[in-house]
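re: that chain from earlier
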Amino acid sequence: MAKNSVQTPSRPSQVRVAIVGTGFAGLGMAIQLKQAGETDFVVLEKAGDVGGTWRDNHYPGCACDVQSHLYSFSFEPNPEWSRMFAPQPEIWAYLRKVTDKHGLRPFIRFNSEVTGAEWDEAASLWRVRTTSGTISAQVLVSGMGGLSRAAYPDIPGIERFQGKRFHSQDWDHGYDLAGKRIAVIGTGASAIQFVPQIQKKAAHIDLYQRTPPWIMPKPDRPISDAERFLFKRFPAAQAAFRNSIYWMLESRVLGFAINPRLMKLVARVARSHIRKQIRDPELRKKVTPDYTIGCKRVLISDDYYPALAQPNVDVITTGIREITAKGVITSDGVEREVDAIIFGTGFHAVDPLPAGMIHGRDGVDIMDAWKNGAEAYKGTTVTGFPNLFLIVGPNVGLGHSSMVYMIESQIAYIMDALKTMQRQSLASVEVQPQAQADYNRGLQAKLGHAVWNVGGCKSWYIDPKSGKNVTLWPGFTWQFRRELKSFDAQAYRLDSRKQPAAQAAPTYAAAK
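^ sequence. v structure.
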């Protein structure tokens, strides 16, 4: 079936598949469904346009930290990337272009934020509540990801502050930073991108650093007109370039997950980067981490350290005691007055779903099922939650390569599950508890030897309740893809009751 040969769908109250989110995960899932001949689906989107993370994060300097040619769909290469590491506007434009090319907008319900989903055991359906109404679906696919809910620090007095305050994800472009005194709280991946940009405008910046990140040089450069012409004229050349990036990044797994001692060589490069970009010995000391590189997310930047070295920036390592109406008081009692506070404090990565959002069999909240730390089978399915598939679920995150590769691997697994359900006339599939437990036992054993667990630091990779790494995949990405190559029905409870009364199930064609 041709990509755009289907008729515009109506707005039914019941569908075979409901997808949540229009980032890479949701759009990729929708494209594969459509290419397989399935049109009985809907994509639920809280905002008025597609894009997910790359729509919502638009702070100054926002860019990807994985090379553009790998951070894109394998089936939709983009020969027009302007830089090795694409800025946010280009990635967002790419996602909008892919949406239109594959005719997805008629399948998307915009301004329809999911407020809850409950599994109806009697009907073998998910009842999904949104801000635009309720919809029923045999299968629910979550493409919400782990970096969608902004996290604020627990600091007394935040509400008392009378100046401007916002999180990097909710950047207020209408607020003029020129000549202002700014407090930046947090030194994570977002902060190291926006601080160099606002340093050029602000009168002064107080950068509150709890733990310095390890930062590597950023091998960024413009992609020349000749290269773009070559990639457009000869797609095989772009595919070869993409593959070279992929295997180069895969080599990082050796230090992260196999032999953490190799990270000492990486640390030498990072320390040299500090020495070359910062002359002041006191500032060097402040920004040099004391934990194993890789234990927390390794960042890349060529302009962060030079920005910190400017006379209008102070790096403050004393802990924050409280926030007042006019500024920030540190634990030594010093108050620094500011006009605005910007939080670069990341996201709720270990709790990607808010409590009360998804209820499975017997009304169990998924967050209660995860009271000892989030876990899933192959990062995709959860026992007690039939016909629920998570894209970028627990332990699917990466510290070394492109999440789009992982997303495509999961989509292939879900598509094979749907084919199995259709072929065997199944009403539902649910991973068996023992299969999930065995899988995660092996996963945690591998993580126990990785740098993230032995590096001597606290990070958002680790669930604070259980102490488990619930975020990262402990190996090569090709190993993950191999594990998800086909739907392993033997690990699931298969319910062959009559399928819910939707339209006749399609015969899935091979995706083009």
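Residues 249 and 401 are 6 Å apart (CA to CA).
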